[in-house]
């Protein structure tokens, strides 16, 4: 068994927070947190509840009036965060799944009113994370902030890394502005709705080397002047997801709950960025897509598992693009800490 000392010696774990720069923002501390999975690939009528210290995972209730209506699963990711702290409760919608039809149907069946959302976060500019946004545009309150990590989220994208690849869509900035969405585009970390925060740009501090399976077309849908210098003057650029954000919450007495929606910058790097931003070392839970499906290899998945174990999270809740090469050995090695979720799962902390 690899110990943390051995991992540090091998350079597989970043230095402790005490050696990092001071936290960049003051993050809110919350008393409770519930995460409802609105979009993912897996739908099940046979999910069972889980209860562990400080954690409950409740399966979706049968809320439809007809057996013909059911929750929908598709490739993509969306999660709703409900948190209470400082005497107030707020809601943050993180990502929007692949299609507006699926997100709208699932929100309706789960009783989620878009008008109740206080803020939104888009992790990155891939269609399986922003495609469902049309389901809430025009239904959230005017002036609702949407946090985005950089202008390149608006660039048109291609599937694959060839200039001849098929389209992978683009996020229409003008439509969002016209609908009264308050776009907050920044590479720096930001507090979100008084309950959470974004990581800002995620540096590579671990050995993770994820490959992003898309390309971007600078100047198409995005302003060249607002892009990084190395991509302003080209017409094609293989994605490195430099604009991707993680979203995190500081749960009082427990530590951080970190959501890496797709983790194209590496889930370990995402967690380390949340630690550095907040100054909080303890990890209560890591949730989301860890981007360990092909072209990532089984060896990369197992390395990520070793790195994650060294972070000593209380719980791990993988989904979306994580892949069985990680999930199966993680459950085998950490059966009381690693749990699957399905569309409609409600994960309650605190």
Automatic annotation (TrEMBL):
The Metallo-beta-lactamase domain, residue ranges: 89-320
Highest taxon above the source species: Bacteria
Alphabetic keyword roster: Signal
Sections of the chain in a coiled coil: none
Segments crossing the lipid bilayer: none
InterPro entries: DHPS-like_MBL-fold (IPR041712), Metallo-B-lactamas (IPR001279), Metallo-beta-lactamase_dom (IPR052926), RibonucZ/Hydroxyglut_hydro (IPR036866)
Pfam family, one: Lactamase_B
Keyword Cytoplasm annotated: no
Signal peptide feature range: 1-21
Name the UniProt record assigns to this protein: MBL fold metallo-hydrolase
Species this protein is from: Caulobacter segnis
């Amino acid at each position: 068994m690899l110990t943390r000392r051995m991992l540090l010696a091998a350079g597989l774990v970043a230095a402790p927070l005490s050696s990092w720069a001071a936290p960049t923002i003051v993050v809110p501390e919350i008393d409770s947190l519930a995460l409802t999975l609105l979009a993912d690939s897996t739908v099940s009528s046979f999910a069972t509840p889980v209860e562990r210290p400080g954690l409950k995972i409740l399966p979706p209730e049968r809320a439809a009036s007809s057996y013909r209506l059911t929750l929908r699963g598709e490739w993509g990711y969306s999660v709703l965060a409900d948190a209470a702290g400082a005497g107030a409760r707020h809601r943050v919608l993180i990502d929007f799944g692949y299609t507006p039809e699926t997100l709208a149907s699932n929100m309706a069946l789960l009783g989620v009113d878009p008008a109740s959302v206080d803020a939104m976060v888009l992790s990155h500019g891939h269609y399986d994370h922003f495609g469902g946004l049309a389901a809430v545009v025009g239904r959230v309150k005017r002036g609702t902030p949407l946090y985005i990590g950089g202008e390149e989220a608006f660039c048109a994208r291609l599937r694959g890394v060839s200039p001849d690849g098929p389209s992978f869509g683009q996020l229409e900035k003008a439509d969002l502005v016209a609908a009264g969405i308050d776009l907050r585009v920044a590479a720096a970390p930001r507090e979100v709705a008084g309950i959470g925060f974004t990581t800002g740009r995620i540096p590579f501090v671990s050995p993770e080397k994820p490959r992003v399976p898309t390309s971007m077309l600078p100047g198409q849908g995005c302003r060249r002047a607002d892009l990084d210098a190395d991509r302003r003057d080209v017409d094609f650029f293989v994605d490195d997801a430099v604009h991707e954000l993680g979203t995190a919450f500081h749960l009082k007495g427990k530590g951080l709950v970190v959501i890496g929606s797709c983790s194209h910058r590496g889930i370990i790097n995402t967690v380390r960025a949340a630690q550095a931003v907040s100054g909080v070392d303890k990890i209560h839970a890591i949730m989301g897509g860890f981007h360990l499906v092909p072209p990532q290899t089984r060896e990369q998945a197992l390395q990520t598992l070793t790195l994650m174990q060294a972070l000593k999270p209380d719980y791990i809740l993988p989904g979306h693009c994580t892949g069985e090469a990680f999930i199966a050995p993680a459950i085998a090695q950490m059966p009381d800490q690693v749990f699957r979720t399905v569309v409609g799962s409600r994960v309650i902390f605190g």
